Amino acid sequence: MLCIFPVLLGAADVKPNVALIALNKQAEMFCDLLLGVYGDTLPVTFVERNSRTALEQEFRLNQTGLLSGDWQPSERHLEKAELFFVAESGEKTTRILIFDGRRGIRLVDCDLVRKDALISVASGAELLNLALKKQQ
């Protein structure tokens, strides 16, 4: 039991890896602002993806309705990220999908009304915190 206890303490310090994916230019600005304002304070590590284009294409294919069930990207896209924070901005809203890539679970799926950029980004940060709580 003494050998397990230190391992459990070390596991609590590990931050999950999160990939920010913007599906259009406005969403890219949203993700940039989220990273700039909350990048140091959120309990996550933001990672880069080498296959962003393929991942975006797969997400868009799922939105066409040709695929059924929860969106499950192929394993080759999940090298480092544990969570995917996907944003797509429309005329008046920003759609947020936060997906657990390891377990194939959609944790958050909602639309944020865009009124003020900082308020919207603060809501995005809260959604990420909510997803982290659901993941545990």
Describe the protein's architecture and organization.
- Helix 2 packs across helix 4 (117-135).
- The chain has helices at residues 4-12, 25-38, 52-63, 117-135; strands spanning 17-22, 45-47, 83-89, 93-100, 105-113.
- Strands 2-1-3-4-5 form a five-stranded mixed beta sheet, with helices on one face.
- By secondary structure, it is of the alpha/beta class.
Give the percentage of residues in beta strands.
15-25%
* Helix content estimate: 25-40%
Radius of gyration: 16 Å
C-alpha end-to-end distance: 23 Å
Helix count from the secondary structure assignment: 4
| Largest beta-sheet details | 5 strands, mixed
Low-confidence stretches: 1-10, 73-78
Number of strands: 5
Question: Structural class of the secondary structure composition?
Answer: alpha/beta
Strand order of the largest sheet: 2-1-3-4-5
Tertiary shape: globular
- Please write the string of helix (H) and strand (E) elements: HEHEHEEEH
Q: Please state the average pLDDT score.
A: 78
